[in-house]
Amino acid sequence: MSQLTVFNDQAPNSALLKSTDANKIKQHLAQVGVNFEQWQTGQAITSSMAHTDILSRYQEDIARVQADGGYQTVDVIALERGNPDAAQLREKFLFEHTHNEDEVRFFVKGQGLFCLHIDDKIYQVLCQQGDLISVPANTAHWFDMGSDPEFTAIRFFNNEAGWVAQSTNSDIATQFPLLD
Ligand SMILES: CSCCC(=O)/C(O)=C/O
Ligand SMILES: [Fe+2]
Ligand code: NI
After folding, report:
1. Which of 39, 122, 131, 157 sits 20 to 30 Å CA-CA off 61?
2. Does residue 57 lie within any of the structural domains?
3. Residue 105 CB less than 6 A away from ligand 1
4. Is residue 95 in contact with ligand 1, taking CB distance under 6 Å?
5. Quick one: which residues bind Fe(2+) (predicted)?
C-alpha cells in the first residue's frame, strides 16, 4: 500500500504522522506543493514489454501531465529483481539532492520511496504501482529503491539532458529509515 510518513527533520526516530489513505496522502502533500495522484493501471505490464508499448498504454494521462507541466521529454526507467548492479544503482539516488526542474514520476509497476525535505519536515512517500508524484523544482529530496529493487516508472523532464542532480552536501539521507 502507498504510504506517507512525516518526520521532523531533527527526529528520525519518531514519526509525526503515518497514513496509507490515498486521499490523506494527497491532501498532506498538496499542502506543501507536491502533487500525488493514483491512476488506473489495469493489466500488469511484463518485464519484456517494450518501453514504447508502456508509454502507449498511458498516452492519455501522459499527454495531460505534459500539457499541464510543459514537460518535453518522457522516458521509462525499469529495474527487475536480482539486478547485479542494484547496490550501485541504489546509491545513485540515495543522497539529498535537488533538480532545477520538477521531478515527476509515475509508477507503472513496483515501488520506491521518495523522501522530501521541505521546511523542517521529512515527507517519506512510498510510491507503488499506479502512483504519480510530482515534486517541485529545487525541493531537496532523496530516493530509495531498496536492496533488491523492482520498479518501472515513467519520468517526465523539461530539459533535454534528462536526469541532472545537484547535491545539497548533507548526510541527512543516512539518518532516516529506508526500504529493506
Ligand atoms: C523513480 S525514478 C528514479 C529516481 C529519480 O529519478 C530521482 O531523481 C530520485 O530522486
Ligand atoms: Fe531526484
Ligand atoms: Ni493531518
Report:
1. 122
2. yes
3. yes
4. no
5. 97, 99, 103, 141
Does ligand 1 have an atom closer than 6 angstroms to the CB of 115? no
Question: Model pTM?
Answer: 0.96
Is residue 121 within 8 Å of 16, Cβ to Cβ? yes
- Which-ligand-closest: CA of 19? 3
Distance, CA of 87 to CA of 128 (rounded, Å): 20
Give the DSSP per-residue string, 77-102. EEE-TT-TTHHHHHHHH-S-EE-SS-
Q: 139 C-alpha vs ligand 3 centroid, how far in Å? A: 21
CATH code of 9's domain:
2.60.120.10
Domains in the chain, number:
1
In this predicted model, what pLDDT tens digit does every residue of 43-76 receive, in sequence order? 778 878 899 999 999 999 999 999 999 999 999 9
Which residue segment(s) compose the domain that 47 sits in? 3-164
Near ion ligand 2, which residues have CB within 5 Å?
103
Q: What is the pLDDT of residue 16?
A: 98
Summarised one tens digit per residue, pLDDT across range 107-166 is 999 999 999 999 999 999 999 999 999 999 999 999 999 999 999 999 999 887 888 999
**ipTM of the complex model:** 0.89
The verdict on residue 16 lying in a domain is yes
Q: Is residue 169 part of a domain?
A: no
